[in-house]
Amino acid sequence: MSLLNALSVSGSGMSAQRMRAEILVENLANAETTRTPEGGPYRRKDVVFSTADVTSPFSAVFQREMGAGVGVAEIVTDSRPPELRYQPGHPDANAEGYVAYPRIQPAEDMIDLMTATRGYQTNVAAMSAIKDMIQRSIDLMR
């Protein structure tokens, strides 16, 4: 594995973790949303990662792929029924007085957000180490 390949792999990891963090923040922001344009409460979303081929801008010259990184395979919407809370005065209450809320656990999503942030930071640290190795290699060639 070349150093440039390692940079590409870390870059793909950073991109995937950024997408995961965006979805988690969207979930947290909509934890109490009872009405959406599609109808009904907001539906929790999750990011599914998969192995993705990482290509280099120079791959056409080398005629090969650089290796495997990580990518977002899909964004899955929660299909479970919403949580019902008895609030008869709420404008979105049904005939029995229950309001449908999203099935979001803010504590769980905050922990997932911290994990995504740490994953992103780990990839930044790896890229920094690779950059230092490349710089030292250049210095040795002088």
What does this entry show, briefly?
The protein is an alpha+beta fold and 142 residues long. Helix content is 47%, strand content 20%.
Explain what this protein looks like in three dimensions:
The two termini are 24 Å apart. This protein is α+β, with helices and mostly antiparallel strands. The chain has one domain (3-141). It has 3 helices and 4 strands; from the N terminus they run αβαβββα. It is 47% helix and 20% strand. The longest helix has 36 residues, at 106-141. The mean pLDDT is 89. A two-stranded antiparallel sheet has the order 1-2. Strands 3-4 form a two-stranded antiparallel ribbon.
Number of strands: 4
Largest sheet, in brief, is: 2 strands, antiparallel
State the share of residues found in helices, binned by percent: 40-55%
> Shape from CA axes?
elongated
Mean pLDDT: 89
User: Using only CA atoms, what is the Rg?
Assistant: 22 Å
Q: Looking across the biggest beta sheet, what order are the strands in?
A: 1-2
Query: Poorly predicted ranges (pLDDT <50, ≥5 residues)?
Result: none
Q: Total domains, how many?
A: 1
Count of helix runs: 3
Task: State the order of secondary-structure elements, H for helix, E for strand.
Answer: HEHEEEH
Structural class: alpha+beta
* Proportion of strand residues: 15-25%
Determine the N-to-C terminus distance: 24 Å
